[in-house]
Amino acid sequence: MRVAGILLVEDDPSVRTALELALTRQGHSVTSYATGEEALDHIRSRRPEIAILDVMLPGIDGVEVCRRVRKLDQLPVILLTARGDDLDVVVGLEAGADDYVVKPVEPRVLDARIRAVLRRAESAASDRITFGDLVIDRGALKVTLAGKEIHLTPTELRLLLELVRHPGQVLNRRYLLRVVWDHTHIADSRLVDACVQRIRAKIEPRPAAPVFIHTVRGFGYRFSPP
Amino acid sequence: MRVAGILLVEDDPSVRTALELALTRQGHSVTSYATGEEALDHIRSRRPEIAILDVMLPGIDGVEVCRRVRKLDQLPVILLTARGDDLDVVVGLEAGADDYVVKPVEPRVLDARIRAVLRRAESAASDRITFGDLVIDRGALKVTLAGKEIHLTPTELRLLLELVRHPGQVLNRRYLLRVVWDHTHIADSRLVDACVQRIRAKIEPRPAAPVFIHTVRGFGYRFSPP
DNA sequence: GAGTTGTGTCACCAAACTGTGACATGGCGT
DNA sequence: ACGCCATGTCACAGTTTGGTGACACAACTC
């Protein structure tokens, strides 16, 4: 099991140090803060693997941190709540938390929850995305089609990943040129088209009738799974 | 908080009515069925915002419904499963469910899950607007009528989007020419009319008696849902 | 340095799109 | 009922757009 970079946010110093100590002893790498503001900074700059947030915090509370984090990232979140209040559970889930734990919590239980959430996050929202026969492994930067590995060149891969990052959305050529190539200028060029064409030749069973990358005439391209 | 059009599928009548009642009380608009077949029909014709499917159903089961729905749309799905069986969870997630809930379920918890899934779907998927049977997805630049995708050409789409951006407002031809085309000049032409006509031919059930795009004689056109 | 791979560009073609004008239709005031 | 004028309808040809294959050059490998 991987050792996680955990962000712990808890305003009560005694609980905080106790949990930090316990989690560290269990092999996690922990950073802890007392306030939501600090937590958000940390998340933005350090990209922890999981955040454990006390619901009750001075200033920005845990639920609010959770909500903001969710808007910007898939970072897994566990909320700590003081009582087994159903209401808190509801609010927490609404904010998009992956799990919630009622205090006081056995370190061993918390550890199990963390691992469970991480495991879930890893398999669900991991580096690997599957669209029918097409599997895109963002970690290994590998693409396979019906089990066979497909070789994509760096540019092709960047373009495909960009399209896949926004499944179902139409991305226009200007945007793609900017993001994949960094051409801020150059309005017109067949570059994107040519690259799409090359990707299609590799991943589409019938490039003339594409299933993955669809052309939206006059606008751009859309990746949408079959 | 938005009220959702929920499709509930559960074969046990007592559970079904109980959940339907609870969800309705929480402000949702619920339609329920006992079988997967009915559910698929409903989905195709009525376009609910979210489907809650019991995994165990006679005939087409929940997982299968989920799988088929996923093939055709981004409709959010929550699966109801009888036991906390890990296997079910895995199968459910593989079929593309957004969440799964173990029965018996607290209505309040289910409500929270629904809202969480809807929120996620809303932010992940694009912004789409629904007018009865007509769904306009501005991110995917897709228009569907009663579930069937309608192909619009770029100009038609731009015009429709412009009309839809101001529902209920009358937009005159000069304005439309300026915004949709870039004609600052050319006051008179049948251009707008022709384009409206083409859109109507595609989205209006009876183009002679339009329900979406109304002509306001002497002024222009108004988009207003039926 | 020779060969290999990756990338941008171009020209050409087919298909899709669109503006146009002539004509039909229908609403509205008289 | 009549005529006027705004709008609907339609076909077509010119234009635009994207697909495609060829190619040149750069980058990289050995």
TrEMBL record, chains A, B:
GO MF annotation list: phosphorelay response regulator activity; transcription cis-regulatory region binding
Swiss-Prot/TrEMBL GO biological process terms: regulation of DNA-templated transcription
SUPFAM superfamilies associated with the record: CheY-like
Pfam families according to UniProt: Response_reg, Trans_reg_C
Stretches assigned to the Response regulatory domain: 5-118
DNA-binding region(s) from the entry: 126-225
Sequence positions bearing 4-aspartylphosphate: D54
Cited InterPro entries: CheY-like_superfamily, OmpR/PhoB-type_DNA-bd, Sig_transdc_resp-reg_receiver, WalR-like, WH-like_DNA-bd_sf
Cellular compartments per GO CC: cytosol; protein-DNA complex
PROSITE patterns the record matches: OMPR_PHOB, RESPONSE_REGULATORY
Keywords: DNA-binding, Phosphoprotein, Transcription, Transcription regulation, Two-component regulatory system
Ranges for domain OmpR/PhoB-type: 126-225
Name listed for the protein in its UniProt record: DNA-binding response OmpR family regulator
Organism, as annotated: Nonomuraea fuscirosea
Organism placement in taxonomy: Bacteria, Bacillati, Actinomycetota, Actinomycetes, Streptosporangiales
